[in-house]
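[job 4417] fold queue: 2 targets
>>> target A
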Amino acid sequence: MNYKNFDSVLALASKPKAKQSILDWRPFGKNTLDEIISKHNEDYEDELKKIPWPTNLIEERGRFINVANYDLSEVDTIDLTQFVKIRFIFANLGEISGASLAVEQVKASMNYARREYWLAQISRKPLQPSERARFTPSPVHFSRPEVIADQYELEQWLASLYWYYKVAASEGTPPPPGDRGGAGEGPGGTGDSSLSAKFDIGKFEPGSWTSVFMNYRPYDLFATSEGGEGAGLQRSLTDIASDVSDIAFEKDFSEEETRALARKAMIQEKVLGDVSAFVLNNIDLKTDDELDMDFLRKPIQRMTFDDKYLERTNTVELLTVKLAKPVTTLSKGQCALCEDLHLNKKSSLIVLASHPETLKKIGILKGAVETHSMHLTLPFDATEMLSLDWRENSRKNVQTEKSKKRTDFGMDR
């Protein structure tokens, strides 16, 4: 098959002697890394066929693994555009203790790439202790178990993580022909309207957030069109499902909980699509302007499922911010604020929710930025779906949030 979506593995290990590639590394003395990953992809393809997903859907929306062709001695040659494709770090514990510089280079790249990674520490010695401290602080999740001493353990860990991806992606994929499905269902669903049962669909009051949540069909958002999947949207189904699977796996969610989280993340993308269209219709953008909606996107790990009724206004006050002069001409304080806002070039147009604290911060940049205010009325109260404070998505804050016990999500056990 011609797979379109891959998560790359970076192996912090040395190439075997007389071999040309890290693909020939045998992590457990049995199969090579290439053989382990190839088997995972074959097994995962079989799982998607059982949903059933047709070949074209597996190619377009399935998510598979490949190996970044670098070994421990070559990590300093990986540029950022290559590093953002990496999702897994397989660290050979027998070698990283003597490769401190390489580990620090990898940590720096992980932090700079602004995405999260999964670390599997591999050892043939079953009782070798974890080197967790070597990789913190950095945006990394740890495998289960943290130190993997058996090939079967590695295979099962990868299979479990990608099971969550399959469930999340299914929530945004229409049922197969002849299967009408139910609320919250798609390919691979339970067939018993589990989300309907969870939210007691017959009892919620008209106009409640639960009504919006249950009646929306996420797969309509990602329907194939001439403009491509998710035309006009900033995030693809595969990216959303990947983020959901990270959270769901780390928190040991059930299928029902995973589908609910995926559904809400996809509804958020619909809201952001509406906001983006509104901004584009109300501002005369220059040809090279780039619309940045990331500060309106509430981090998925902060989403809750409280049933909030529509007693507040559904009008969202927006503020767009763009540099009016080069960063080199700004004061130290203004430069720090621009860094937090990711304002590093004049073509970047940041969209924020307009709130007193935000306006106070933007005031510091008076004269250095161009701003535009507008009011958008949505068909329902979308405050639950948007970040109210730009700091919520700042790099520093995201790092801090990950160090806390995650209790924001309404289905924590």
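>>> target B
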Amino acid sequence: MWKLQRYYLRELTVNAAITFLVMFAVVLLSSIARGIQRSQGGGVLDAVKITLLFALDAFPHLLTIAFLIATVLTFVRAAQDRELLAIRAAGISPRVPMSAAVLVGILLSVLGSVAMHYVIPDVHFHKYRVVADVVRNAFLNLKLGSDRIKILDTGYVMTFREHVGTDYLDCTIYCPPERVLADMRSPILRVDRVSMPPPDRFSDSIHILPQGVRDPIGGAYTREIPIEIPLRDIADRERRHDRDDDLRSDQLLAEVLRGVHLRPHEAVYALFRRCCFSLMPALLAPIGFCIAEFARERGRVLALVFALVPLAVFYLGEVLGARLLLTTASPWAAWLPAAMLLVVGVPFCWRQLRR
């Protein structure tokens, strides 16, 4: 029996690994645009890191889908080659080859449990913080990536010819009407150099220092133009606050038990949801085997189409569970996907294995 299980165990493991790598590569490529967008204010390495973190955030979904596809492909090949028929003819229960899929499913459930409770929350937290909030918000809000900088709510707009470090050369500053001084003949000023030095740790604002200011109509302008931007105005704009998805399960459970979580039913729902996702490979193992045997005469493509049914049931349960949480405030709604999958899968597997 062990030789038979080892035979299918090896084939299933290889198919699952290849399927997962292909799907992960597709997700990685699709995350490049988001990584570039999120890395504004950082460098190339920041874009690569954000892209990788966004792809890793899809790990639980990829693990489940890749394993189900690999299970169906492995055993539909065995069914079409009459291997499963020969096993039945030899008096061996179909549960013997199916146990190989169950073993891999249990192993992936353990791996997925560790990832869902400890690794993925950290990934979800750090993917939004590769570039510091102040740096990224300053880049986006001040539009430092273009040649036209609007200095937040001050009303000043600056264009420049060249950017060297923290200095902007050959600039033109457009002053708002309410900030035009009495001795200024034009709201447009020409500036040789504008410096934006980064704030030190004791400062709570960014100081903009124009040098060589000239009024195009009145000539040289010697009075200083103080421009100051509070860091709070930069950091708090478009800031993303922590959510339950950013906390590990032990941290989330500690907040609930200590009574400091604002919405404890949502926190428990997040914990149950992670447990439900972790169990998915083990639940889908027998279903994938029975789908493969059921589609023996129908081909591999149709078998993959049949494999979409349990996935559709699971993700439908995920959507309905979230809606049920909003209406009932019951965290047990997180188990609805697994319950729906059991309702659909148990009769199907029971019928197929007893044939």
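[job 4417] complete. Note on B: The longest strand covers residues 205-215.
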